[in-house]
Amino acid sequence: MTEYIEVKIPFDRSNYDHICNVIYMADADLTIEEDGGFLKLYSDKDGIEIIKKITESLELENVIEKNSATFTVFENKNWNSEWEKTISPVEIYDRIIIYPSWKKEDILASQKDNIKDKILIEIDPKMSFGTGHNETTQLMLEMFCDHLDERDGTMLDVGTGTGLLSIAAVKLGVNSAVAFDIDKDSIDNAEEYAKLNNAEDQIEFHYTTIKNIEKVEFDVVAANIIRSVIIDNLDEMLLRLKKGGKLFLSGVLAEEESLIRKALEDKELQIIEVRNKAEWLGIYALNPA
Which residues, other chains included, contact 116 with Cβ-Cβ below 8 Å and sequence gap of 6+? Predict the structure, then answer.
């Protein structure tokens, strides 16, 4: 009988990204979900050593407390199938629906009467961040819906992840996007998703840093990354954002609002809107003309 291992790793918003990065860099075939302050990892018994290395690494770096990760062995259960049942489509207002491939038929059937009015984006989540399920991504997409218009010809997507923001932007009317990430696997996946959603001709992907993006005068710059990385790269973003251009930011905790406001105001950016979702902020600002 097949055995499956469930590992529960406690997290909070201060260590979430670090834990996800360690899991991702382990290059393991794992099913991952969030549940009440825990990241749950599922694997067959062949993956137990990789999972132990992940938890040991996190303990050595003091990211989690020693022995705080719990291991449970189950028998004869298809965890991928069970996990897929928990993933629901994400709707942004009445305009965008982000859905996994196994929900495609259901979505097409449910939207058949008004499908022309919807933007449908297919992305299969491996981890929730960057697939529409995370509040920061939802904030970005809501701001796109509210503030992008026909004058926004080009966008720079900073730290693109799955490519979702670029895909959504071009489907909302942006003519073209340049998207980059420092993670090669992210770029490979983003290119795949762009092609899957018929947006590959409008998005140019790069495995690089922002300093190697030569194009300037973007109408829009979007960055859904943590506050410290936003501030460290703000000058580079503004070098590439045209005067009067739009800046969309998320990945910033509500408790960091004063820090991000000061950083933007020091660069004489005009903050138009700050909105909240759970403990996260979404910020829309203009680069003065």
Answer: none
